[in-house]
Design a protein that fits this description.
Blueprint lengths: L10 H4 L4 H5 L1 H21 L4
Length: 49
Amino acid sequence: MDVGLLYETPFMDLHYEGLDGVFGDTDASEIVELVQSFNETVGAMFEIA
């Protein structure tokens, strides 16, 4: 999943700052790290860069 999608609809519909506004900076950072980790793991499993 492209992390940039977290700063678009539906999060932008809920708050103008997207993910950061909905969850706060600390939680948003942890969510981004989780998505990036997932992307790396799945990418390695399926040989996706």
